[in-house]
Design brief:
heterodimer, A: mainly beta, Neuraminidase, four-stranded antiparallel beta sheet, 3 helices, about 40% strand, B: alpha+beta, Rossmann fold, eleven-stranded mixed beta sheet, 11 strands, about 30% helix
């Protein structure tokens, strides 16, 4: 297994090579074969988002740069776009924010569009379109728009079939910033808001319920039953800072279909990942029904929860092992869940069983991880296994096997 | 007494015999030690060899493996240095209490005012949120906030919040001994003390150690001969304050200044009490040989 890990402390990118069963916290357990820093640019320049393009990577750094780098054995910077963040746009929001630390801009989304274009969204509501040309390893900024800040997430809808006109749709939201759906023209000519959610009704005490969506994932557009073609057809799952799980369907209305508080103490929910048989490349859900899939979410303490879509707790991942807040969790195609956080360990779980496969001390709180190679064995183990297999192929062994097979089978005792 | 030995029914006699036996053993031991000391005086290598061979099995010695001990990473140092982000200026501390504090908290605050240099005490008022306090302090160039936590008229905890972006630490306070109760205590002066940090080995321990380093100025007044010791043993941090006294050219004596108290880390959070980086859980006490600092 080969991982690329981004650490906040020191702003380093680390490459880890390990096999299943690696646990660096136990002295006698299998240790990682390799854990090396390939690039280090200081805490203020740490990588927040990594997007892999075969041997090339797009890195969104905290200093406001998006870099195109080449990495096979050696880290090589090819091109970069700078000044994509704007802290001053967040200044007016600090006074009424629940956050106690001064708000700083950062990247919240870097997702691919068609034809080598990428959509980059920042906390301050800047939406950039970047063009990556892999032939001459260049990256350029095509367009920038502004949407209502502050943002905590943005998620691109990659159900391309649904948008017959080829336009792009993404959703965003944040602290006291209701979820909005935004459409971008296929030629990046214009950006317009097409839908905005409405807050739920006041609670039993007739008090307003605070708004703070923290993550969302799209479902397929509604197919079953009656579809009103005059209305938009988008469906999505949302989690909030106030520990709500919400189902939205634009066919149903602007309020959520379901709005369930998962914790009594309103523990903030931070990350959202989908655990389903099939998901899209951007982590959206390949079904049009709110059933038969689970969500993976995290709080600000140490828990990684797996809930079914109706809000019933299924399991806690890494319970008792994780000791700090989880800042990164992602389910990858090869059936693994990657997890990293403030406890400075990178972990890999088996998505189907929830068993911990790898635990590596990275030396810094983990910001982002990418699985480069999902082989369960490390290279040394693979070599050993292959050499055994070669022995079995030897001619002598084959002859011996034939001899055994030619012998008359013993009669079974009655 | 062995099982085969006849049992002496007379209790007085039994006790006497046992005391005699014990006395005899003690005398033998003292004799052996005196003899060994004499031998080791002649041969200094013998003592070294004996100490090397007879390593006692302590709980600390048998501590569970922790890969963060002894690892040195440049990234770690950069992360730890964020506690010293006040551009080389001495730390400026705001001291306050929890809301609706009682007498004990204020008395403890008086003690802390003497201990921490450049400290300003502010009485906690109702209606002020943590964000308001942090905002006001950041504007006045305070580098740290210390909050005394009082529960049921007892001082139970201390919060350290580094400004402007954290981290935040919460310690449990126990075993407080007032200055007046320490026999032969001295009177502290206003000199900046020297700081001794013992046994902060793990990555978490280093973070805690750096916190204490950052709240005391880097230029101690050596003429004051005052030392503050923060000694970590089995995750308990013992606070002691002494003055060293040169008795002659070779001998140094210690005079305790007090007070004494013990801290135990309960929580370390990013920012101003936001995401938890490490938190104490009662299950941690089950494993006696696992230490976190």
């Amino acid at each position: 297994m080969r991982l690329l890990i981004s650490c906040v402390d020191g702003g380093s990118l680390k490459e880890a090579v390990c096999g299943v069963g690696t646990d660096s916290s136990v002295q006698n357990a299998l240790q990682p074969l390799k854990l090396e820093s390939i690039n280090s640019e200081g805490t203020g320049n740490c990588v927040d988002i990594i997007h892999g393009l075969d041997n090339k990577f797009l890195l969104a750094r905290r200093n406001g740069n998006v870099e195109l780098v080449h990495f096979v054995e050696k880290y090589e910077l090819k091109d970069k776009v700078t000044n994509l963040l704007n802290d001053s746009r967040l200044d007016p929001f600090y006074a009424r924010s629940k956050r106690r630390v001064k708000l700083r801009d950062g990247f919240i989304m870097l997702q691919p569009l068609r034809n080598g274009n990428f959509l980059v969204v920042t906390k301050s509501g800047l939406v950039h379109v970047l063009k990556v040309n892999q032939d001459d390893d260049s990256i350029v900024k095509l367009k920038t728009w502004e949407v209502k800040a502050p943002l905590d997430f943005a998620q691109l809808c990659d159900n391309w079939d649904a948008q017959s006109n080829g336009n792009y749709v993404f959703g965003y939201g944040g602290e006291e910033n209701q979820i909005k759906l935004v459409e971008i023209d296929a030629d990046f000519g214009n950006l317009r808001q097409i839908w905005e959610a409405k807050n739920v009704k006041n609670d039993r005490l007739d008090m307003r319920v605070p708004v703070w969506p923290t993550a969302m994932k799209f479902l397929q557009p509604k197919r079953s039953g009656t579809v009103d073609k005059t209305k938009l057809n988008f469906q999505f799952v949302v989690i909030t800072h106030w520990s709500h799980l919400a189902h939205y369907s634009t066919q149903y209305g602007k309020r959520p279909v379901l709005y369930k508080q998962l914790f009594e103490n309103r523990e903030p929910l931070e990350q959202l990942e989908i655990d389903a048989d099939a998901t899209t490349s951007l982590g959206n859900i390949s079904t049009d029904r709110f059933e038969k899939f689970a969500i993976i979410t995290t709080d600000t303490k140490k828990n990684v929860y797996k809930y079914d879509i109706s809000g019933r707790l299924l399991v806690k991942l890494g319970n008792g092992d994780i000791s700090g807040a989880v800042s990164f969790v992602k389910k990858v195609d090869s059936g693994y869940i990657l997890q990293g956080g403030l406890d400075r360990y990178a972990r890999v779980f088996d998505a189907s069983t929830g068993e911990r496969l790898v635990k590596i001390y990275t030396g810094g709180s983990t910001n982002c991880m990418v699985l480069l190679d999902g082989d369960r064995l490390d290279p040394a183990q693979r070599e050993k296994k292959e050499s055994k297999r070669k022995l079995a192929d030897d001619e002598e062994d084959a002859e011996r096997l034939w001899d055994q097979l030619n012998k008359k089978p013993k009669k079974a005792k009655k | 007494m062995g099982a085969e030995e006849p049992k002496i029914k007379n209790k007085m006699l039994r006790q006497q015999i046992f005391a005699d036996l014990k006395d005899q053993k003690n005398k033998q031991r003292h004799k052996m030690r005196a003899q060994r000391a004499k031998e080791e005086k002649d041969d200094p290598n013998a003592k070294e060899k004996r100490l090397k061979e007879n390593v006692p099995k302590t709980i600390e010695g048998m501590r569970v493996y922790d890969e963060t001990i002894g690892q040195k990473d440049e990234a770690d140092e950069e992360d730890l240095m964020q506690l010293f982000n006040n551009n080389g200026e001495p730390p400026k501390i705001l001291l306050t209490t929890s809301i609706n504090a009682k007498r004990n908290a204020y008395e403890f605050a008086n003690v802390l005012i003497e201990i921490f240099p450049n400290v300003t005490f502010v009485k906690r008022k109702f209606g002020l949120t943590m964000k308001d306090i942090v905002d006001a302090c950041s504007k006045r160039n305070f580098t740290d906030i210390i909050i005394i936590n009082e529960n049921k008229k007892k001082v139970t905890g201390l919060s350290f919040i580094h400004l402007p972006d954290g981290p935040s630490f919460y310690f449990k306070v126990s075993s407080y001994v007032d200055v007046k109760k320490i026999v032969g205590h001295g009177r502290p002066t206003s000199h900046i003390p020297e700081l001794i940090l013992n046994n902060f080995n793990t990555r978490l321990g280093k973070t805690v150690g750096t916190l204490f380093q950052s709240i005391f100025p880097k230029n101690p007044d050596f003429e004051g001969r005052q030392v503050i010791t923060l000694h970590n043993q089995r995750d308990y941090i013992f606070f002691r304050r002494h003055r060293y006294v040169f008795e002659n050219e070779k001998k140094v004596g210690l005079q305790e200044l007090g007070p004494q108290f013990t801290l135990k880390l309960r929580r370390l959070q990013r920012g101003i009490k936001e995401e938890t980086e490490w938190e104490y859980r009662p299950e941690m006490d089950k494993e006696k040989k696992k230490f976190y600092l």
